[in-house]
Specification:
Blueprint (H helix, E strand, L loop, with lengths): L1 H20 L19 E3 L5 E8 L7 E6 L14 H6 L2 E6 L15 H14 L6 E6 L3 H10 L4 E7 L12 H9 L3 H12 L4 H6 L18 H9 L16 H12 L12 H5 L5 E7 L7 H10 L3 E6 L10 H12 L4
Length: 344
């Protein structure tokens, strides 16, 4: 009798553990019980939809067609402080989109670093913006740009990596540098990233349990932001929409958690594996990396080291800025000027 009771307790316990680590099913936009579709979308070849937003001049009149990949917890509707006058003067067509699982874009359970490039390429082709385009990746969205440089370099005319995400498990990083930079992060953030990398199947439970703190920025903590970041957050409603519902309306696992799993998982390549020959043969392509010196989320030493190993990167280190530097109008304009006025 006691053995049977013990066995029942064990089975029940295992069942509870299994259920607690399973993410809930997503609430897909446009399906019964799901959020409504309110944005224009394209249908991809695999049946998924990507929601997008267009700004600037009409694509038919544009000299520069720029696709922007948003960061963690953000969406196509982020408030980029780039004036209509600036875009008109430089004939910029700006296309932002909800990455898979965010906002009104359908989730992609098999999402990977590689799949990001082909989502962007197919979006560009569906909207007929031409054979080549500019890509900009902000923070976590930078792995989308690295993907484009790796898998579709022939489609890229230039690119900007803005405070780009760092994967501390890249083989190209010296162990001492990776350990030192990783160790400067908040302990709760270190745990979240390690779980995303080593035991991704456990991440949903870790991010939703109440016993221990998980990722700081998703809990509304400001400890990881610099003074300049806090000033931006005070002055405007710009910046990642971490406290807003629309980016995560289809389920936090399909956007935030999966972003962490992909960004800190095995990319299948390191930045140093990207062929400089493929980029050089692509004409006058320029790749810019913008890093804030006061960034507490993305350590400047890692991206500075990376830029020294990659001859195809033009490195910009901004001394008086933090992780939200692109939401400063002056810096934002400088970033886009580097793309449309290469000699500025």
């Amino acid at each position: 009798m006691i053995a049977r009771i013990a066995a029942a307790v064990v089975v029940a316990g295992l069942g509870y553990v299994y259920l607690s680590i399973q993410p809930p099913p997503p609430k897909i936009c446009g399906t019964p019980g799901g959020p409504p579709v309110t944005s224009p979308r394209v249908k991809l070849e695999d049946g998924r939809h990507l929601a997008y937003k267009e700004r600037g001049v009409a694509k038919e009149d544009a000299e520069h067609k720029i696709i922007v990949a948003h960061g963690l917890g953000d969406s196509k509707d982020f408030n980029l402080p780039l004036s209509e006058e600036f875009m008109k003067e430089h004939r910029i067509y700006l296309l932002s989109f909800d990455r898979a699982g965010y906002g009104e874009s359908d989730p992609r359970p098999t999402r990977s670093v590689k799949s990001e490039a082909f989502d962007i390429e197919e979006l560009a082709d569906k909207l007929q913006i031409g054979p080549k385009f500019v890509v900009v990746g902000i923070s976590m969205g930078a792995y989308s740009v690295y993907s484009c440089l790796k898998y579709i370099p022939h489609r890229i005319s230039s690119a900007a990596l803005v405070v780009p995400v760092v994967n501390y498990w890249w083989k190209c990083l010296p162990a001492k540098l990776a350990k030192e930079s990783f160790g400067k992060m908040l302990i709760q953030d270190q745990f979240a990233f390690m779980i995303a990398h080593h035991t991704p199947w456990l991440l949903n439970w870790w991010m939703t349990q109440k016993w221990f703190p998980s990722l700081s920025v998703l809990q509304g903590k400001l400890d990881a932001f610099s003074d300049s970041d806090l000033e931006i957050l005070k002055q405007t409603a710009a910046g990642p929409q971490l406290s807003q519902e629309k980016p995560t309306q289809q389920g936090v696992h399909e956007c935030l958690h999966r972003d962490l799993i992909v960004g800190f998982g095995d990319w299948g390549f390191d930045p140093t594996d990207i062929s400089s020959n493929a980029l050089v043969s692509n004409g006058s392509i320029q790749i810019h990396l913008w890093q804030a010196y006061e960034d507490r989320l993305i350590p400047y030493k890692v991206n500075r080291h990376l830029s020294e190993q990659l001859p195809w990167i033009k490195y910009h280190e901004v001394p008086d800025a933090g992780h939200l530097l692109i939401y400063n109008a002056t810096f934002c304009e400088a970033i886009f000027k580097s793309l449309v006025e290469p000699n500025s």
